[in-house]
Amino acid sequence: MLFLLLSVQLLSILPCSFSASLSVAPAYSTKQTCLSESSASDSISAQLNTPITGGQFTFYGIGGRGACGLDIDTPTKSAAGSGTLFNSNAAWVESCLPDARYLLNDLVCINRCVKIEYKGNTLTVPINNKCSECAKDHVDLSEEAFNWLEPGGGSLSPIFGNTDTNKWISMFLARGGRWKRLRMIANPAFSVANLKKCMCLLIDDSVKNAINFLEKARNKGESFNIHRHFVEMSFDVIARVALGQRESRQFYTEMAQLAIESM
C-alpha cells in the first residue's frame, strides 16, 4: 500500500457538524454508547474550532478496532487524530452497544470530527482512531476519505516515493510522518494496519480461551495461581502471532509447560 503526504490548506478539530461539502456522521451517538462528555477525559477542548493552516493529511490501511475501541472501517470515511489530542489518563468503560465492548472515555473519541479544506473541497469526518506519531497539524485518514479529497491518489515515484524536497531522503534519516510514509512504501505488508487485520482475531481468540480457563478455575471455589494463566496466554499469543501456531493450545502445550517449569 502506498502512503502519501499532502499539504492541507486548513485543518480544524471541532464538535461534529454537517454543513460542509461532504460531512460523515460518527458511527454511534452518545445515546447508543452511553458515554458522557461531562465525565470524559479531555485534552482536546483547547484545540476545538481552532483552524490550523499548512497542515498535512495521509492515509492508512483499514480494518480492526482503533484506539477509541471503535471499528476503524465504520464509517468508511474517518480519521485518526494526533496522539497529542488524546488524554493518557483516559479510562476504558463498558459501553451499551450490543456487544458491550469497552470504549475509551476520552472526549476526542466522543463525536469529535476533523474538518479539512483542500483544493476548494471540504471534508468533515469523525475521529475514531489515534495516530501516535502524528503532530497536531497532521491527520491520518482512512483510504476512502483520502481518495475523496485526492481522487487521483496523488503522484508517487515508484522508486523514490514522495521525496518532499529532498530526493535522497532515506527511511533511516526520516522522522514522523515522512518516516511512516517511507516505511509503508518499503514494506507495506508489515504495516501496523495490515498486521492488525490478521492479528486481532488470533489474539481475541487466545484471550477468550484464557478467560474460559480463569472462569473454570474460579468455579472450583479454590485459590489458584493466576500467574500461570497469564503465562499460558502470553505463550499462546506469541506462538500464534509470531510462530504460525494455528489453534489455541493453552494448558496442554508441551513446549509451554517446559518453559513454565524452567522459570
Secondary structure: elements and pairs:
Blueprint: E1 6-15, E2 22-23, H1 30-33, E3 52-60, E4 79-82, E5 92-94, E6 102-104, E7 112-118, E8 121-131, E9 138-142, H2 143-149, H3 176-186, H4 192-219, H5 226-242, H6 254-261
Parallel strand pairs: 2-8, 3-9, 4-8
Antiparallel strand pairs: 1-3, 1-7, 4-9, 5-6, 7-8
Helix content: 25-40%
- Tell me the span between the first and last alpha carbons: 42 Å
Kindly estimate the percentage of residues that lie in beta strands according to DSSP: 15-25%
- Give the total of beta strands: 9
The shape, in one word, is globular
Strands in their spatial order, largest beta sheet: 1-3-9-4-8-7
| Overall structural domain count | 2
Largest sheet: 6 strands, mixed, barrel
Spell the H/E element sequence.
EEHEEEEEEEHHHHH
Keywords: Monooxygenase, Oxidoreductase, Signal
InterPro entries: Cyt_P450 (IPR001128), Cyt_P450_sf (IPR036396), Expansin_CellWall (IPR051477), RlpA-like_sf (IPR036908)
Family: Belongs to the cytochrome P450 family.
Signal peptide: 1-19
Describe the structure.
It is a single chain. The chain is of the alpha/beta class and 263 residues long. The protein folds into 2 domains: 6-187, no CATH class; 194-261, no CATH class. Helices cover 29% and strands 21% of the residues. It contains 6 helices and 9 strands, in the order ββαβββββββααααα. The protein has helices at residues 30-33, 143-149, 176-186, 192-219, 226-242, 254-261; strands at residues 6-15, 22-23, 52-60, 79-82, 92-94, 102-104, 112-118, 121-131, 138-142. The strands form 2 sheets. Strands 1-3-9-4-8-7 form a 6-stranded mixed barrel. A hairpin with a 7-residue loop joins β5 (92-94) and β6 (102-104). The longest helix has 28 residues, at 192-219. It is globular. It starts with 5 loop residues before the first strand and ends with a helix. Residues 1-19 form the signal peptide. Belongs to the cytochrome P450 family. One of its GO terms (molecular function) is monooxygenase activity. InterPro entries: Cyt_P450, Cyt_P450_sf, Expansin_CellWall, RlpA-like_sf. Keywords: Monooxygenase, Oxidoreductase, Signal.
